[in-house]
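Lab notebook, design round three. We kept the backbone fixed and only want residue identities now. Task for the bench partner: fill in a sequence for the structure below.
Input structure tokens:
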């Protein structure tokens, strides 16, 4: 398999302040693990540019985009106690969306089989008009909408295995029957959403699926959840699968209480690859979300990429 890996040193320029778990060292740890495991040189690393306003406005209001831009230009500030804007954050967040959009072009254009987008800040908590939870713009939602608008895909699936519910992605697609959104997450835990009865609205009822789990679940329990997901994904028949690849369900993560291992994440990717090969010519784009223990994060990303590259 030819796998694209999209990252850039500029993603280190977004800062959240001292002692914040979402820190530049996360990407350093990933790069080092890929080099240590012999994966780095086998990955294709395409160039990409920052997203245009039109890409951000696929999912966000102009009000939100301009707010982040103004805050960065004014030297930065805090959106909430968890979410900061530094002077470089607006350009870095645009670059993160641009990387995800480029991954879509690469996969759908046949330049590669699948892609992993290693960016920061993460995105899945960002709603249409609200940045929150370490997230400024919703990278994966913008990429999925771009796949539909630019490439004409009629159905996309976004699967989120981050330990926190992807509330922003759910909100953006909650009334959109052309997107299937699935989240398995620890509950109760920030953002305190994602209950089973949240299933979509209007014509989109049934295209949102949440599986909240109590703390302490590990590889076996996550594998069982993925088995439950098989039938609805196959019925929806997406033309591309996106993964909100957060690794804070890892047993060592300081912000979660789950017990998933790197091998457990690789198993989830193996199952997802099987569906993608059956349904959409293997087209998968993974976008990094959480994961705050550097060893757990980097080992899990390496395992996930090794599975993407296999076959």
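Proposed sequence:
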């Amino acid at each position: 398999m030819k796998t694209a890996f999209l990252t850039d040193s500029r993603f280190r320029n977004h800062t959240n302040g001292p002692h914040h778990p979402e820190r530049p060292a996360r990407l350093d740890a990933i790069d080092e693990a890929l080099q240590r495991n012999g994966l780095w040189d086998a990955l294709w690393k395409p160039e990409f540019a920052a997203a245009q306003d039109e890409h951000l406005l696929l999912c966000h209001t102009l009000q939100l985009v301009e707010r982040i831009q103004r805050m960065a230009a004014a030297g930065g500030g805090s959106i909430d106690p968890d979410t900061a804007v530094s002077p470089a954050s607006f350009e870095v967040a645009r670059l993160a969306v641009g990387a995800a959009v480029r991954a879509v072009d690469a996969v759908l254009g046949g330049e590669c089989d699948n892609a992993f987008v290693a960016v920061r800040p993460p995105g899945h908590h960002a709603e249409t008009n609200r940045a929150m939870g370490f997230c400024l713009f919703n990278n994966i939602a913008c990429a999925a909408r771009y796949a539909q608008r630019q490439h004409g895909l009629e159905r996309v699936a976004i699967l989120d295995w981050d330990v926190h519910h992807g509330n922003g992605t759910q909100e953006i697609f909650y009334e959109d029957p052309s997107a299937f959104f699935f989240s398995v997450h620890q509950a109760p835990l920030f953002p305190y959403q994602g209950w089973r009865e949240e299933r979509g609205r209007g014509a989109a009822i049934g295209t949102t699926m949440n599986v909240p789990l109590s703390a302490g679940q590990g590889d076996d329990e996550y594998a069982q959840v993925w088995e439950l997901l098989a039938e609805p994904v196959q019925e929806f028949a997406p033309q591309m699968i996106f993964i909100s690849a957060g690794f804070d369900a890892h047993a060592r993560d300081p912000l979660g209480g789950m017990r998933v291992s790197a091998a457990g994440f690789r198993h989830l990717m193996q199952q997802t690859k099987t569906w993608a090969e059956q349904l959409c010519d293997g087209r998968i784009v993974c976008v990094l979300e959480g994961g705050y223990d550097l060893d757990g994060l980097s080992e899990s990303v390496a395992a996930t990429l090794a599975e993407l590259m296999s076959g």
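Keep this in mind before ordering anything: The chain has a mean pLDDT of 98.
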